[in-house]
Amino acid sequence: MKKIAIFVSGNGTNCENLIRHFLSSETARVEIVISNRADAFALTRAGNLGVESAVIGKADFAKPDNVLPLLKKHGIDYIVLAGFLLMVPDYLINEYDGRILNIHPSLLPKYGGRGMYGHHVHEAVKAAGETETGITIHRVSNVCDGGEIVAQFKVSLTAADEVSDIEAKIHELEMKHFPEVVEKEIGLI
């Protein structure tokens, strides 16, 4: 049984989608959800689905002794970032080399990097008059949004699409594709 840790910072729709996807799996499960914010609604979503959670603040997250023992205690094989807004420290990238995946709400390398998350990305896409956008699932490296791209999924945009429309289209792509890509990447398909 492969064990997954999901790192979150916010609402947690992708987190919940991943947990639900792996509930019936005989080969993998979400073992723990870790957030850098105590008020992240993702923690409530995890609890409602019977998944343990933990809060590790930003300063504590930077220290290996606060994170690695928890991951080892739970036998974590893979880490999935689902709306996690901190840079992953080098010690985690080294420990889980090639086994940390992130989802980003644009077609990287466009609209990536520090400060480019959620509505900031959608606003930039709208302001640029893009005719398509999408999601990128990539391996995490020590460069913000710079890791190897695993999969990208596109959606067309029109000039009439508002930021909220772009967000809804991205959310639909995330719900449809993220769990399957994670499953494939950890070798279960």
TrEMBL record:
**EC main group:** transferase
Chain positions of site Raises pKa of active site His: D145
- What EC number(s) would the UniProt record show? 2.1.2.2
Q: Which GO terms describe its cellular component?
A: cytosol
Keyword Transmembrane helix appears in the UniProt entry: no
Record: active site = H104
Annotated (6R)-10-formyltetrahydrofolate binding sites: K63, N102
* Pathway(s) the chain acts in: Purine metabolism; IMP biosynthesis via de novo pathway; N(2)-formyl-N(1)-(5-phospho-D-ribosyl)glycinamide from N(1)-(5-phospho-D-ribosyl)glycinamide (10-formyl THF route): step 1/1
Q: Name one Pfam family in it.
A: Formyl_trans_N
Database matches in CDD domains: FMT_core_GART
Please name the GO terms that the record assigns under molecular function: phosphoribosylglycinamide formyltransferase activity
Q: Where does N(1)-(5-phospho-beta-D-ribosyl)glycinamide bind?
A: G12, T13, N14
Superkingdom of source: Bacteria
Q: Where is the Formyl transferase N-terminal domain?
A: 2-182
- This protein's UniProt keywords: Purine biosynthesis, Transferase
Q: Which reaction does it catalyse?
A: N(1)-(5-phospho-beta-D-ribosyl)glycinamide + (6R)-10-formyltetrahydrofolate = N(2)-formyl-N(1)-(5-phospho-beta-D-ribosyl)glycinamide + (6S)-5,6,7,8-tetrahydrofolate + H(+)
Q: Which GO terms describe its biological process?
A: 'de novo' IMP biosynthetic process
Role, per record: Catalyzes the transfer of a formyl group from 10-formyltetrahydrofolate to 5-phospho-ribosyl-glycinamide (GAR), producing 5-phospho-ribosyl-N-formylglycinamide (FGAR) and tetrahydrofolate.
Q: Which family, according to UniProt?
A: Belongs to the GART family.
Query: Which named protein is this?
Result: Phosphoribosylglycinamide formyltransferase
* Lineage summary: Bacteria, Pseudomonadati, Bacteroidota, Bacteroidia, Bacteroidales
- Gene name of the record: purN
